[in-house]
């Protein structure tokens, strides 16, 4: 396996090599002795089943509870994209063992939300090398603030923290694939990563693109409207007509669907901007229902429309 990094120090690369060797030598079947308990009430994870979808002979996705997981398998070991909630780690590992007995070597975090990186500590204790943006690592290390009315999270334990961070693109060359980790600045959060699998002709977006519901701009954790627009625009420029766009939530789609999603954001943004210019309050803007032309086409529109409009209002209102 070869790796190329942009803006990653030689010391960090050396650390990666040392830890990766240790992870490769470690038992891939290490049990999870004790799963950390979240501070908030959780769904009944005992009833969650992990669904495996084959994309190519070496690339799969897993769906359970929370964000979608990507799995690259082959002779160099397993690379994961995201890890869902912590109580699901044993089930995720069991699903991986149905695909391969190779060691789990790397875990990429697409962003800081626990439905995507809640399993970090468990996988870190197995010797898996966690890789993410420095902004994500800092938020985990210092504790993440409340999001959408939910309580914040305390600082993560050391085993949950990414060992490798990157400011520019980071490439993994393993299992016959050239995996590209591409930072998407200040989109869904300030630590988003797009993960591209060129040979599989697939792109994983994390949650800066979701094919269900209206977008979620997590401004509390550094997200922004302009960053999301720029990230979606970038996806449309690197994707071909047959590229599989794999969102953090919702069905896999093609480039045309992302372009339509982007057009929708721009249209709703313009409607909200017009209402803001008229001096409307946030509640008045929400009550004007600027998403109405799209609600019938957007799954989970009812649950996510007011949130998105409120986020747009916060982005577009005049500075006090």
Verbal overview:
By secondary structure, this protein is of the alpha/beta class. It has a single domain (2-33, 46-262), classed as 4-Layer Sandwich (Metallo-beta-lactamase, Chain A), CATH 3.60.15.10. The protein has nine helices and 13 strands. It has helices at 10-25, 89-97, 114-117, 120-125, 134-142, 225-238, 255-277, 282-287, 301-316; strands spanning 2-5, 51-54, 59-63, 69-72, 78-81, 104-108, 129-132, 164-165, 170-174, 177-184, 192-197, 202-204, 244-246. The strands form two sheets. Strands 2-3-4-5-6-7-8 form a seven-stranded mixed beta sheet. β2 and β3 (59-63) form a beta hairpin.
Rg, alpha carbons: 20 Å
* Category from helices, strands and their pairing: alpha/beta
CATH class: Alpha Beta
Cα-to-Cα separation, first versus last residue: 52 Å
Say how many strands there are.
13
What global shape is seen? globular
Q: What structural keywords apply?
A:
single chain, Metallo-beta-lactamase, Chain A, 32% helix, 320 residues, six-stranded mixed β-sheet, alpha/beta, seven-stranded mixed β-sheet, 9 helices, 13 strands
């Amino acid at each position: 396996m070869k790796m190329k990094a942009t803006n990653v120090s030689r010391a960090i690369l050396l650390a990666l090599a040392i830890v990766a060797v240790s992870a490769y030598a470690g038992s891939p079947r290490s049990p999870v002795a004790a799963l950390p308990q979240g501070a908030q009430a959780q769904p009944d994870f005992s009833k969650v089943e992990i669904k495996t979808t084959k994309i190519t002979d070496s690339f799969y996705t897993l769906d359970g509870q929370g964000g979608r997981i990507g799995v690259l398998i082959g002779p160099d070991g397993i690379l994961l994209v995201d890890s869902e909630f912590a109580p699901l780690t044993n089930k995720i590992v069991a699903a991986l063992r149905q695909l391969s007995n190779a060691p789990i070597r790397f875990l990429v975090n697409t962003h800081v939300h626990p439905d995507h990186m809640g399993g970090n500590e468990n996988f870190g204790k197995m010797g898996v090398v966690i890789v993410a943006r420095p902004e994500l690592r800092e938020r985990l290390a210092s504790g993440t603030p409340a999001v959408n009315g939910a309580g914040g999270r305390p600082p993560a334990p050391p085993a949950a923290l990414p060992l490798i961070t990157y400011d520019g693109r980071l490439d993994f060359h393993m299992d016959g694939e050239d995996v590209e980790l591409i930072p998407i600045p200040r989109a869904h959060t300030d630590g988003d990563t797009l993960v591209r699998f060129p040979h599989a002709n697939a792109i994983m977006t994390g949650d800066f693109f979701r094919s269900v519901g209206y977008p979620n701009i997590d401004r509390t954790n550094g997200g922004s409207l302009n960053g999301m627009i720029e990230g979606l625009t970038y996806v449309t420029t690197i994707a071909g007509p047959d590229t599989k766009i794999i969102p953090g939530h919702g069905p896999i789609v093609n480039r045309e669907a992302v372009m339509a999603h982007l057009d929708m954001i721009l249209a709703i943004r313009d409607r909200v901007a017009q209402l803001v210019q008229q001096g409307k309050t946030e509640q008045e803007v929400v009550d004007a229902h600027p998403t109405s032309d799209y609600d019938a086409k957007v799954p989970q529109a009812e649950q996510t429309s007011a949130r998105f409009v409120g986020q747009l209002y916060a982005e577009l209102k005049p500075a006090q």
